[in-house]
């Protein structure tokens, strides 16, 4: 199967300063591909460059079509959903209003959203600003899933969430990824281990590693060298997350 997204020699600048340089990777048409890297290395900039939100050069091919010269609205219409780092929901509007405003297509996929996020349906009348961080993240994901996107870019959905909520968001993403391929920026190694087949590691604006997620995460030396995380820490965190994810409800 051809990749859904091909990024070749992509460079981008913010306020004239280079933020990524010569980024090359592909995203398979199914499953989750994770983008990893330390803070400030250019993960968000990579997503923004793909979406045409910052000045970029290089080649981006989405489902066989070059999109690197296109405006963001055109890219969105082609079917790339973007869930930004800071979960842009309208705080003063209700959950139901947030969802309605996101509907782009003639036939929004309300059934899918209701099936994946029953809690949001129950909270339809609640102002989004009063939701917890995890619930806002779910709403943000739901807004992207309402439309018939052929790729989702999701930036650090678990950032700042409590461990139990991280597991819930990971579960929602796992379900979502059965319907649409996902390019996921994520720093939480257990979440990557659970969701991602492939990884792209960025450092100082450049790709320093691509490969299978499992192969990277079981290589303690590589994890330490590429991500600055001690693998034993990663293993401990991974074991904790697996325990939390598999423990009966009362034990969490
Ligand atoms: N609005 C901005 N103005 C100037 N520089 C910026 C801006 N946004 C990002 N940068 C710079 O671009 C580089 C890459 O930032 P980016 O946000 O892409 O990194 P990141 O990997 O997503 O980081 P994080 O892990 O903190 O989310 C950083 O050096 C950052 O300081
Ligand atoms: Mg970022």
Automatic annotation (TrEMBL):
Coiled coil: none
Pfam families referenced in this protein's UniProt entry, alphabetically: ABC_tran
Keyword tags: Amino-acid transport, ATP-binding, Nucleotide-binding, Transport
Domain ABC transporter residues, every copy: 5-229
Xref: PROSITE patterns: ABC_TRANSPORTER_1, ABC_TRANSPORTER_2
Domain of life: Bacteria
Entries under InterPro entries matching the protein: AAA+_ATPase, ABC_transporter-like_ATP-bd, ABC_transporter-like_CS, BCAA_Transport_ATP-bd_LivF, P-loop_NTPase
Matches recorded under Gene3D superfamilies: P-loop containing nucleotide triphosphate hydrolases
A GO MF label: ATP binding
Family named by the database record: Belongs to the ABC transporter superfamily.
Protein name from the UniProt record: ABC transporter ATP-binding protein
Organism: Georgenia yuyongxinii
């Amino acid at each position: 199967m051809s990749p859904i997204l091909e990024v070749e020699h992509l460079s981008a600048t913010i306020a004239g300063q280079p933020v990524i340089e010569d980024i090359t990777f592909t995203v398979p048409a199914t499953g989750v591909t994770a983008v990893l890297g330390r803070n400030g290395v250019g993960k968000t900039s990579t997503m923004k460059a793909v979406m045409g939100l910052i000045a970029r050069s290089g080649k981006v091919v989405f489902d066989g079509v070059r999109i690197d010269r296109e405006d963001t609205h055109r890219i969105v219409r082609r079917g790339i959903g973007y869930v930004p780092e800071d979960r842009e929901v309208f705080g003063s509007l209700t959950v139901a209003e947030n969802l309605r405003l996101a509907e782009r297509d003639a036939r929004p996929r309300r059934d899918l959203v209701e099936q994946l996020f029953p809690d949001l349906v129950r909270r339809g009348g609640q102002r989004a600003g009063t939701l917890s961080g995890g619930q806002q993240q779910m709403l943000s994901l739901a807004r992207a899933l309402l439309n018939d996107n052929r790729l989702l870019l999701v930036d650090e959905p678990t950032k700042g969430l409590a461990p139990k909520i991280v597991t819930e968001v990971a579960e929602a993403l796992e379900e979502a990824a059965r319907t649409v391929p996902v390019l996921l920026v994520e720093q939480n190694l257990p979440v990557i281990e659970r969701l991602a087949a492939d990884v792209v590691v960025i450092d100082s604006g450049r790709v320093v590693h691509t490969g299978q997620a499992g192969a990277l995460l079981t290589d303690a030396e590589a994890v330490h060298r590429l991500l600055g995380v001690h693998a034993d820490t990663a293993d401990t965190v991974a074991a904790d997350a697996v325990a939390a994810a598999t423990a009966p409800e009362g034990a969490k």
